[in-house]
TrEMBL record:
This is Glyoxalase/bleomycin resistance protein/dioxygenase superfamily protein. Residues 1-120 form the VOC domain. InterPro entries: Glyas_Bleomycin-R_OHBP_Dase, Glyas_Fos-R_dOase_dom, VOC_core. Keywords: Dioxygenase, Oxidoreductase. One of its GO terms (molecular function) is dioxygenase activity.
Length: 120
């Protein structure tokens, strides 16, 4: 099992986005009163986030395998996700069939880390 650790610039902002938009559940944060580290789950997926406000955040991409990328994207937008308009990256705007045989959508968290939801 691999567990990614994403570096974030603002813990409250990251937790709000991950739990309210991307449907992760907060398992634990350390320390509870002013967390700098948190563990989250989404189904069988586990994700850790670490607060690092010194500018080293937002440089990671992770792939999340799923069975219905269109359904997930619809649920994320219903929860408040606003897909950006990017002239050179239509895969950020909505699910897209890739030439390598997957259907994907890219979602950036508020710190700039990219979640690639991929349907194979």
């Amino acid at each position: 099992m691999l567990i990614p650790v994403l570096i974030v610039r603002d813990m409250a902002e990251a937790l709000t986005f991950l739990t309210q938009v991307l449907d992760f559940d907060l398992v634990r944060s350390f320390p509870a009163e002013a967390p700098f580290y948190a563990l989250l789950n989404r189904g069988t997926d586990e994700l850790h986030i670490n607060l690092t406000p010194d500018g080293r955040y937002g440089r990671a991409s992770i792939i999340v395998l799923c069975d219905d990328v269109d359904g997930l994207f619809a649920s994320f937008t219903a929860r408040g996700l606003v897909a950006p308009t990017r002239a050179n990256s239509p895969v950020h705007e909505g699910p897209l069939d890739q030439t390598w045989g997957t259907r994907e959508v890219y979602i950036d968290d508020p710190s700039g880390n990219t979640f690639i939801f991929q349907q194979r």
